[in-house]
Structures are given as structure tokens and as C-alpha cells.
Amino acid sequence: MALYAVVPAAGVGKRMKADRPKQYLQVNGQSILEHTLTRLLCFPMFEKIMIAVNHDDPFFHNMPVSKDVRILNCDGGKERVDSVLNGLNALVQQGADVSDWVMVHDVARPCISLNDIQRLYDARNEHGAIIGAPVRDTMKRTDAQGNIIETVEREQLWHALTPQLAPLGVLKKAIEFSLQNNLPVTDEASALEHVGLKPIMIAGLASNIKVTHPDDLAMITQFLTNES
Ligand SMILES: Nc1ccn([C@@H]2O[C@H](COP(=O)(O)OP(=O)(O)OP(=O)(O)O)[C@@H](O)[C@H]2O)c(=O)n1
Ligand SMILES: C[C@](O)(CO)[C@H](O)COP(=O)(O)O
Question: Which residues are listed under the site Positions MEP for the nucleophilic attack (predicted)?
Fold first, then answer.
């Protein structure tokens, strides 16, 4: 069975408060999107990489990486889950089979390691598998005013990261079911859980952070500089 990637990249990056969507901010002379796609392209097993971009995206199609033979693109959607579903449907339209494997990876996670991708692929199963990082700190829940309400048990508590893997048809049906039933889907595993599946957690590098807030830029610059 073939392996495909879907890269949700149609967000606007509100929390980054930048002059452009965060995936187009530059780090070491390249946009975050280029860092991420270049890294995914280094994993030879990806048959095709389907990136979901905003319909009016003024940047993507002018980038050399958009011309790579393995890079396909489709329109993103209102929410991340809609962009992912659009990507899955676009892959099927391009000839992917529902029995093929798909990994979904945020464009905003440029520090993904090829080793983590390989380990996720090696863990492939019908329930799905995701890359995560175990929580390291004591976790607190607060009220809206920041008053600590409780300490959250952190045993077996993880940060869900990406990529997240599943059989393409299984994930597509799980997302469609979740949307039809108004169930919350913030990652692929939550959709799989909604249909009773139990994806496996694979411990990955904590450096695989999602660029979300302005202070994340310094961190990924450090990670990407140290790797090069
Ligand atoms: N409608 C959307 C919303 C998000 N994403 C993508 O989903 C990933 C994770 O989402 P997030 O970090 O929340 O990105 P944004 O939605 O851009 O950030 P914000 O919530 O701060 O606006 C990102 O790669 C983003 O581009 C997407 O493809 N389509
Ligand atoms: C999918 C994800 O990266 C898992 O941690 C995360 O949920 C995406 O960010 P969002 O802000 O929830 O869209």
C-alpha cells in the first residue's frame, strides 16, 4: 500500500499576530512552509504530498517547492479539519486508494525529524498512530481568571503532535462521521476516537513544536540552525 501526506496549510495564524500567515514567516532564509515541505520531501516513501492552502493564498504558487512533482495542492477549508478532509478527498480524486496510508502533518511544524516519520510509519495499524511528547511538567487547570483549580494527573498525559497516520479511507470516514455529528475534531486521532478506534501514541522529539505564538520563532530558529 502507498503512503501519502496531507499538509494543512490554510490557516491565518491569528495568534502569531504577524503581517502574513505564520507559515510564510522566514527562518534562516526560507519560509516555514518551505522548511516543512522540504523535510517531508526527504522521506522517499511519500508517493504524493497534498497541501491544503487558502484559495486566495498569494505566496504558495510562486514558491519553487510548489513545482515539485510530488507536491499537489487543494483548497483549504474553514477549520483545520475541513482542510484535512479536502486534502483526503483531493488525494482520492488523484487516484489514491482508500486502503493506502496517509500521514497528516501541520505545515506549522517545520522541525519534524525523518526518524520520527519513519517510526510512525513502522507503527502503522488499522487504528492509526500519532507522534506525541510526554508531558514533562506539573499540569494545572485554572478558571478563566487564572486561579488554579486543580493539579491534573500527568501520568500517561501527552502532547499530541503531528504527523498522525491512518488508513486513508478509515480517516476520511471518521472525519465525515465526526462532522456530521458535530463532534470536536482538533486532530486526526480525535476523529478516529469518535468512531471507537484506539490510535497508538509514538513518543517523538519535543523539538517538533507547532509554531503558534511569536516567541516560538526563536525556538524553531534555534532548532533548525543547530540541525543544519
Ligand atoms: N482552516 C484552517 C486552519 C488551520 N489550518 C492549518 O492547521 C495547522 C494547525 O493549526 P493552527 O496552529 O491553529 O494554525 P492557524 O489556524 O493558522 O493558527 P491560529 O489558530 O493562531 O489562527 C496549521 O498548519 C494551519 O495552517 C488549516 O489548514 N486550515
Ligand atoms: C493537530 C495539532 O497540531 C495537535 O496538537 C493541533 O491540535 C493543531 O492546532 P489547533 O490550534 O488545534 O488547530
Answer: 154, 210
